[in-house]
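re: the backbone from monday

yeah here it is again, tokenized this time
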């Protein structure tokens, strides 16, 4: 099939490259000229495991191409995905300006049947609005009064790609959700995904849009739930790792997304929870459960900072080494990373912050002022009063903590992801603090 993907960011690029991988001819579009220039050379502007290899392969055999022109791409494709950004407005609502712009641009060049598919995460009812925008902006020859004479469809096909494993997630979906209004749209999307042999969930457009917001909000709820349990564990002297294990074996609960820590971040969960709260409110339902999910998440960062203050006493002039700043491992993405709130809070109190991250340092430099970046974890540890583990990169698993202890001023480690075995760390001479491990006497309030 001939497919266009508009928006070549984390989601659009992975989608485009993977669609080429399963046999389609794909044109990726972006209005960022510099990005398209690099992509044409086979350079991937983001860190996403496995992506560059596939991109180079399909660029070479011409199944994949890049352009800044929606007009060129749309003319040569039957299916057009919209995967541009949907950032948050100040009130939490999704800003759909880019989606509307792209829909308008597509409409203006349409002269044959097209299936326009929303890939970006959008609130329910966006599909209907895209449909209206397209109808209103078609060339005059396809409009007779209020009647539209050109056949087209709008569909929703939300993404469930986790950064860091997005290629794997695309190739091995738990399900593919499509929201459609015609048999033709359903047939095209079924055909497109057929090589993956996925479980298909076929719904109306509004339900598909809602499935995405509901899924991400549910996962965020699961994380906040276990973070709340972690707080109780610290108060009563229980270990959240054991509690999660014990809960997780129950198939109705499952162990996934029960990792307590410094809270969820990234470009999706915080934004989608906000947008879902707003969408519900606008439609007359006060989603207090989700408001509390957000509160617990914000509190998680604050409590971690309070723990550090409690153990270090005076923060001013203390040297704090941060292992990992990305919002999760295997990505260079800093959007809504929990590290941001933690580092900024410590800096406000006068801490001297050093940081090391395997991939995210270039993006971190755009976020933080006055952070000293180090070439490796050992250079980071030198002279530190404590270390904070904020992103659980695999390479941090193999660190030689005896060596690290020798170069630190004080061997204290705050493990924001419960990544390390506390006994091993203690055996290496470290004072160790995890989240919800029942080792603290913390007072709330
Ligand atoms: C985006 C949405 O924010 C998210 O809600 C959705 O689930 C998937 O798409 P992401 O791919 O992570 O997420 O965003 P980003 O990496 O910012 O990529 C968006 C791309 O669209 C950028 O490359 C940007 O240059 C491009 N863009 C934006 C256009 O090509 N045209 C526009 O009008 C606006
Ligand atoms: C998410 C969705 O999982 C994915 O389906 C898609 O909709 C895009 O958004 P992503 O944001 O890339 O993916 O990462 P994810 O693995 O979901 O993690 C999100 C955040 O939650 C990270 O900050 C992660 O560290 C945190 N997290 C995750 C926890 O704190 N505990 C957990 O148990 C799991």
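seq for it, each position gets an aa:
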């Amino acid at each position: 099939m001939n497919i266009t993907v508009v928006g070549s960011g984390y989601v659009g690029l992975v989608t485009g490259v993977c669609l080429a991988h399963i046999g389609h001819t794909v044109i990726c579009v972006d209005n960022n000229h510099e990005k398209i220039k690099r992509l044409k050379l086979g350079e991937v502007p983001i860190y996403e495991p496995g992506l560059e290899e596939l991109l180079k392969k399909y660029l070479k055999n011409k199944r994949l191409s890049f352009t800044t022109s929606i007009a060129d791409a749309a003319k040569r494709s039957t299916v057009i995905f919209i995967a541009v950004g949907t950032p948050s407005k100040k009130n939490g609502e999704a800003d759909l300006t880019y989606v509307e712009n792209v829909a308008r641009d597509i409409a203006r060049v349409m002269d044959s049947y097209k299936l326009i598919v929303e890939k970006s995460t959008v609130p329910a009812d966006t599909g209907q609005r895209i449909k209206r925008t397209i109808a209103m902006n078609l060339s005059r020859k396809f409009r007779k009064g209020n009647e539209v004479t050109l056949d087209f469809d709008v569909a929703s096909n939300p993404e469930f790609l986790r950064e860091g494993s997005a290629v794997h997630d695309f190739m091995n979906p738990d399900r593919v959700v499509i929201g459609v209004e015609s048999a033709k749209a359903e047939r095209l999307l079924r055909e497109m995904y057929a090589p993956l042999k996925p479980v298909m969930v076929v719904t109306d457009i509004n339900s598909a849009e809602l499935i995405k917001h509901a899924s991400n909000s549910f996962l965020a709820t699961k994380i906040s739930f276990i973070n709340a349990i972690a707080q109780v564990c610290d108060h009563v002297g229980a270990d959240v790792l054991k509690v999660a294990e014990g809960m997780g074996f129950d198939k109705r609960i499952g162990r996934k997304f029960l990792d307590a820590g410094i809270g969820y971040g990234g470009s999706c969960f915080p934004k989608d929870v906000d947008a879902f709260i707003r969408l519900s409110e606008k439609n007359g339902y006060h989603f207090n459960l989700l408001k509390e999910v957000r509160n617990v998440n914000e509190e998680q960062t604050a409590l971690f900072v309070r723990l550090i203050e409690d153990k270090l006493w005076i923060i001013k002039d203390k040297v704090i080494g941060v292992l990992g700043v990305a919002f999760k491992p295997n990505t260079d993405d800093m959007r809504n990373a929990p590290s941001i709130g933690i580092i900024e809070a410590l800096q406000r109190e006068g801490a001297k912050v050093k940081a090391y991250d395997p991939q995210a340092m270039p993006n971190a430099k755009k976020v933080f002022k006055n952070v000293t970046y180090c070439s490796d974890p050992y250079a980071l540890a030198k002279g530190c009063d404590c270390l904070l583990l904020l992103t659980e990169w695999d390479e941090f698993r193999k660190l030689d903590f005896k060596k690290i202890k020798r170069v630190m001023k004080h061997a204290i480690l705050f493990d924001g992801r419960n990544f390390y075995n506390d006994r091993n760390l203690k055996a290496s001479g470290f004072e160790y603090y995890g989240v919800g491990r029942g080792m603290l006497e913390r007072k709330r309030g």
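Residues 179 and 203 are 5 Å apart (CA to CA). The chain has a mean pLDDT of 96.
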